[in-house]
What does this fold into?
Amino acid sequence: MNIKEVSIVNKAPFLNDTLIAAKSIDVSLDLMKAIKGTYDILGIDVNTPRIHALVNEKGEANWNITKPDTTQKTATESKPLAFKLRHYSIDNAYIEYKDDQGKMYVTLENLTHSGSGDFTSENFTRSTKTNADAISGTGGNRAYRDKVKTELDADINIDNATHKYSFNTDKIQLNGLKLSTKGTIQMPDTLNTIMDVQFNTPSNDFKDILSLVPGIYQNNFKDIKTSGKAAFNGFVKGTYNKTQLPAYEVNLLVENASFQYPDLPGKVSDIQIKMQAKNPDGVTDHTIVNIEKGHIAFDNEPFDFRLLLKTPISNPWVDAAMKGRIDLSQVQKFMKLQAGTKLNAIIRADASVRGTISAAQKGTSEVLYAAGTVGVNNLFYASKDYSDGVSISSLLLTFNPKNVTVSNFKGAYLQTNFAANGSIDNLLGYYLHNEALTGALHLSADK
It folds into this structure.
């Protein structure tokens, strides 16, 4: 059976929004068994579906479209429906998930997925294959992944009696990064998900980690020469629901790494990173992010940074520093830019901060240390979308316990010259805790 040009259009509160549209849906079944009342479905194949899953600010979902059953039930016994599915597939799918209440947005482009198994059994193994050209996601107004090419092959043991899913596979790839993972996911009810998952990288090649940088992976990544070692591992264990997160730990170690395009003269070298993000009990405020070591040299120009973040919800405590010089006009020597892009600037940084967000808001120097400067000179940026470009001839940010002062800010945009000075009073709260950015800026422009 073949159904072409299928679409489901929503009712209020998602009036006229298309939930799903597909070029065709093919269903193959054993006709003789169907005549006898046993539906042995050989396969369900969905071609080029476009799925838009939406949740509004009230928490209402656009896929809740079934009407309640108002028919009266009788006490007569009925024969249970005999239903068996052997194989299913989804080809060339585009899936968009937008949650306005949870501030989350995820897209999957050109998704191909297939699965097979005895879906009528209480305990069986489902063999799956999944490929997606690009997975992107944002949460809390921040991008977490941008167009990650994904491949996943896994045999999943399904226990329908306990709603438990077990797996162990080393056939996961995110861009060039290969992952091994094993564990269980259990959904005992509609509210809770219990997870116990471990993951690591079977390879210690730095190039695998580098592939997760979109701007690099999307520009002749296979030709890049790399050196150095890298390790990535962690776990997720505990219960996930609307009010609780599982415990987790993620570790990244990069040692003596470098990369260079063969047709570019510059080299990014001496990359050293030691980072850990962990949460021991699922309480978000107990999360600790520690970039213990960060060092990178852009064509022999060193840049160092570190970050320690604690209690991110109740009162973020931060200990961070950065020091170095970056000449953006040299970026084209070691990275390939999009056609039409022009980039120029000298950035000098030597700044550190240590203390709590509340101390920063109160300007309490006894419990907040902040010092140093970040300066920008002769910045110019133009691209295909901004052909006229924007320029900043000078900008100086000075850090102190009370705020960040802005001085000598001069630039031009769309034939308008501007100058500004002032202060930013809640930069840490804005950056680390998504609070409102406060301050005062005195601006003058000639047009």
Summary: The helical segments are 31-35, 206-210, 214-217, 331-334, 357-362, 427-433. The chain has a mean pLDDT of 89. The first strand starts at residue 2 and ends at 9.
